[in-house]
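Batch 3, record 17
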Amino acid sequence: MTDFNAMTEALVACDAVKLTDLVNSALAADVPAGDILNNGLIAGMDIVGEKMESGDMFIPEVLMAAQAMGACVEILKPHLGEDGAAAGASVIIGTVKGDLHDIGKNLVAMMMESAGLTVHNLGVDIAPENFVEEIKAKSAKVVCLSALLTTTMPAMKQTVDAIVEAGLRDEVKILVGGAPVTQAFADEIGADGFAADAGSASKLAKKLAA
Amino acid sequence: MFEVIGERINTSRKLVQAAVADRDADYIIDDVKKQQDAGATYIDVNAGARIGHEEEDMKWLLDTIQPIATVPLTLDSPDPAILEMAFAMVEKTPMINSISLEKERFDAMMPFLDGKDCKVIALCMDDAGMPSSSDDILGRAKTLVAELNKIGIGTANIYVDPLVQPISTDSSKGVMVLDAVRAIKAEFPEVHITGGLSNISYGLPQRHIINRTFVTLMMDAGMDSAIIDPLDSKIMASIRTADMLLGHDQFCMNYLKGTRDGSIVS
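Prediction for the assembled complex:
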């Protein structure tokens, strides 16, 4: 019986050396790579996300944990069969048109990747029609819109409207976030959800994609 | 002397938005007076958050603030039409917040600024996004100064904002902006350096101590203005103390005045 708790603890402690040892030992003991990924690494990052949400862990620690996880995913990759590597739900994320801020959006993308979702990070200054195209191209289950400025918040509504007009509203869940964005604004423009930080955004995306 | 641009009159702040929506002049007047008493040398006025109401909100705010303003105003909007209206309403030479190298913003702001007597905040932002190195910041600052000089805005009226970025996502972001400020001041001794500071502490706990430690480092590098909340007495005390330590306070008079009126305590 593999002790996945030790892995999640090492991840939460941002201890890359210990985590790598545990992953290598588990592989040597013939634990399936997919189990290590899901029950060790992704489960650990879920805890990291929760601790971020509750203010018990901070961005530099989350980055360290994600880096440690990334190194272990590289170790697992050659061992992940088609089944074990079954991709998580497709998520699209981008900063809306007119807005060039990407730090928060990239953190959210990183947390979602760590949570096992398949994240397509479109970048900044993404026009509504580009979001629509990518939703189709990537068969996205969730689309995440970021805006850091009050002046670019209207572009979030335009993007939601474009998704409705394209007839995709029932196929995709829409999440919004960014410093000036609130739950009230999310409700007003017809989004499905709002998250205040990367940890809760990732949790919410997983829930909505399920 | 360090110039403090008081940031509180901004409709993205909940209480200000409520006061503006209710046309509660007393609230606004009281807030502006408090900022002035605390040492603000400019009062920033931003009416952008109530989407669709910016023009009427800006007009009402200026009508309300102008009669009691003892310092110049910083007119804060991306819309040249709003700024044109605001510019005509103020008595003292205002500061404009802001121009950047983002094409749309730049093209909209240049005709407005052309030939105007004003100060202007110049953001080191372009269509590629946030700057990625101190050289990148310096390059953007040079372009902004050159372009603004061409339309008659002297270097001493330009307030370059090098764009402080969170140290939580990259430990080198503090040094990056400090180096950039030194390089900009070496290139243009007359230019001012301003900006918000709180981005530095994004994503970290106990943010205020980071912000007020950082401002003193930035001041040593050449920052001589900041967009902050003047009612944050601890950062104001740090600024005045650093101003003295950097030789900008003859006979330490401002520092001593602060200790006597209680605004500077150990």
